[in-house]
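Risk register update: the risk that structure generation would not scale has been downgraded. Supporting records follow, first protein first.
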Amino acid sequence: TDMAYVNWCSPSYSSAAGWDWMPYVPGRLAGITGNVYLRVTGDVLIEHPWVRSALPSDNTAELTVKTGLYNTGKQSVQVTLRGKITPGDISFEKTYTVTAGVNREIIWDKSVFKSLVMDNPQLWWPNGYGEQNLYSCHLECLVNGKVSDSRDVTFGIRKYEYEKVNNSSNQPVWRFKVNGKPVYLKGGNWGISEYLLRCHGEEYEEKILLHKDMNFNMIRLWSGCVTDDEFYDYCDRHGIMVWDDFWIVFSYFGVS
């Protein structure tokens, strides 16, 4: 018979009752372990924005900007969404009708704005292979000429590739490439941010710099246990790729 396997304490920390690398910490899951904040906005919110890149050639990058426009108000409104990518000062703007209570998905690519095709982009490279060039995309939405919400997204332009090849013993192996160049992956395991969950903000940088100083270029993030944006921001700044592994045994619902 089919039986669903459910992690009944999810969302939580898989190591809540200890693990092979740490003992049990009483009360560790009690209370708030992350940052809590209030943000003042208008009725329309910018939801979960991101920027992705494709590299059809060494000298050309094609960008895709995606975000949601969530109208929390009680009536439909005209929303002007505009953005600017720097360096390069690439600007774009478009107006949409957003129905009350609806989160409208907006996707911008080269078919919408030709300016999202960049010549000679500054690429992001893993530690030891080049510079960690980063871009910033500032987004804001306006209702009746007033800014209702704004967000900033930092991103690198890069291309990941995987290919199956035979090694010197004629055995199949996976080769990993970044921006068309083979990269030798080496790094450490990250079990959890800190024993008592006290690692936040700038405290991540020191730990990530230790990986960089050891000439690592990747961190394997056990079960995707760190969700703080600062962790990923510092990895971006210092050339550390992140292998987020999500265990089916702990987080997948409806396994038969």
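Supporting record for the second protein:
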Amino acid sequence: MATKTAKVGKDAKIGGVTLHLTNQQKIYWLEEGITKGELVDYYDKIAPIMLPYLKDRPQSMRRHPNGITGPDFFQKDIDVEKVPSWLTTKRIYSTSNKAYIDYLICNNKATLMYMANLGCIEINPWNSRISKPDNPDWIVIDLDPEDIPFSEVIKTANTVRKVFEELEIESYPKTSGSRGIHIYIPLAAKYDYEIARTFAQLIAQRVHDRLPDITSIVRSPSKRQKKVYLDYLQNSKGQTLAAPYSLRPKPGAKF
């Protein structure tokens, strides 16, 4: 456990691993006074509940080294020669980059806290596992509101659920930690991303047909003001959403 050690920036022993925690007094949420050490402590405590959602999934690390108001960047490729030897990585070929990328795999508390210590406020796993990287474990419908009351997001979510009930398909919602709702449909890695994305698009279209005044399937934010965007494009290899129980780099440290 990284209790007091997390607050003074000393080494912490987690499951036989020694993790050096740095700059734990740095303020990450200025208005709330929440520190990097408290971020690390959160992931220390939530790890047993959160880790099953991360197991064997490549991580796209979004790092905020100076907190939520500072610049952030995504890091996907891990320098395996420089990181601690106890970390697990997986080399996967990226067609967009036309190169192999060494992704970090988060299967234990020490790795989760290592990511938090790098400034990963939110945790972004793939929808598929390294055993079947081309086959997602679920379809995701991301309800992303654009300048519209949350009550309309709930109305949209209920319509999505009704569509799935009519098709006798199970679905599970979770709050996004930001403004919207993520809706998951289990696939058990039986289908590839193209099939998943096509199905998600069909569902999004059906929901939009029922709620044309408050929903949109148009990607451009400027063209969907005061609408709930039915985002089905997250169903692609390498795309990520904030994991369950992940904090978000938003005021209030929401999840």
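The helical segments are 4-8, 36-50, 109-117, 150-166, 193-210. On this basis the risk owner (M.S.) recommends closing the item.
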